[in-house]
Amino acid sequence: MIRLNAFFTAKDDADLNELLKLTTELVEKSRQDEGNKAYDLFQSTTNPRVFMFCETWENQAVLDKHSAAPHFTRLVPQIEALSTEGMYLNRFEF
Questions:
Q1: 27 contacts 39 by C-beta, under 8 angstroms
Q2: What SS3 string covers the chain?
Q3: What are the chain's domains?
Q4: Which of 13, 43, 56, 58 has an alpha carbon 20 to 30 Å from 1's alpha carbon atom?
Q5: Rounded to whole angstroms, how far apart are CA atoms 91 and 42?
Q6: What interhelical angle do 70-81 and 16-30 show, nearest 10?
């Protein structure tokens, strides 16, 4: 199993409603991807502009498919464009 925690911070001038629309779509579509065990988005309670995706995947092969999926390649660049420095990723295997 592979666990990914991807953090990002919304730009000060980013529309949080638009950002949440994009992230909600990414979560919904990614949960349907083959080999996905969990895909959630969390918003910080101490800084509402900080977000974290928590993802769990069966293996690298299904994660590679997810990374190439149309919803991923369309939505992630839009989300990153609204963030200060893109996404910071931590990877764990178990």
A1: yes
A2: CEEEEEEEEECCCCCHHHHHHHHHHHHHHHCCCCCEEEEEEEECCCCCCEEEEEEEECCHHHHHHHHHCHHHHHHHHHHHHCECCCCEEEEEEC
A3: 2-93 (3.30.70.100)
A4: 43
A5: 17
A6: 160
**pLDDT per position in the chain (94 positions), as tens?**
999 999 999 999 999 999 999 999 999 999 999 999 999 999 999 999 999 999 999 999 999 999 999 999 999 999 999 999 999 999 999 9
Rounded to the nearest 5°, which phi and psi values hold at 20?
-65, -35
Residue 78 to residue 7: CA distance in whole angstroms: 15
